[in-house]
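User: If only I could read backbone structure tokens as easily as an amino acid sequence. Those tokens are not coordinates but codes from a learned vocabulary of shapes. Could you go through the record with me and say what the backbone is doing? Here is the record:
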Amino acid sequence: MSSATAVMDEFPELLGDAPPPRSSLWEFVQASGLRSLVAAASRNPNAKITVLLVSPLSGQSVLAIKVPTTDAAARAIEAEARVLIDLHRLGPRVMETIPRIVDMVEFEGRPGIVMTAVQGTPMTSAYLQWRYTARHESVAVHLAAVDTWLADLQGETAGELAPLDMDGGVAARLASRFSDDERVDDDLDRLAEIYAELRRNTVPRTAVHGDLWFGNVLLSGGRASGVVDWEDGATLGEPVRDLVRFAIMYALFLDRRTRAGRRVAGHPGLWAGDWGAGVEYAFDGTGWFPELFRRFLRDGLARLGAAPTSWRDAALAGVAEVAALTDHDEFARLHLELFRRLAGREARRS
């Protein structure tokens, strides 16, 4: 039995009483009568290919197909299928912003998923515009849109209360991934202190996206009209993960379009060059962006019932999480070094 058939057997509600289809990706595309567009082919070691099927009449995307190129990518897509199906069973109002699984296909013997295409313009398009992030009003719209979307998702899926837990296997993964780094034990000791402080807070378990950054958010009319890529999601998890992931990733690329050694337009005190400078600026700089960054975190924590003053510990834990869980080894290493700089600065301040 192929892996795609096994997944389809696990989700018989996709197909009713009909036998599992065995269409390949290209057979499905051809039979759809829609135009196809390869929208994304990720560069990470376990890449996925996303194909949009577009109506020739309206010009709008109707379906999105995601297929894997490795076995690990196939497992991630299977996990995404489970999360999306479970989320739609919950039925919160924000489901209109979340893709719905409608079918499955095979791609080189591995399972792919066919989803409804959520509408909107990727936040990336605006973020990467010339000097878009140099303007307070522009950035405030982005943060407000995601804050509203998170409030709706978390409020409508809130379950039992539990101590705020940002570990979830992060410390163990860091210890394994960086076992050859003589400083990692000190990092883990500092992280344990951060986790202990955060656990003083109690928050609800809610649905979690798991990789909420601006590249996965679509906008329409100033609101988040779509959120995609739920491979790391859960129907009941730690909601603070989404809050800090979005804030950190938004700050991380502020200097992306500025030459090294130059001041980043609109952000006094931020200079391009050192990797992670935007995050350090958000943590410890002065100006309108650091204030927006911290307010986004403080307000989100308060909404969940946690102390707003925990924002720094929560964000530090979020940086460590990226170092532990990202597929990119170099991206992981850079985040570990960023954690060290920020945590060391916090220790000196204390």
Q: What stands out?
A: The chain has two domains: 3-116, 121-349. The first helix runs from residue 3 to 10.
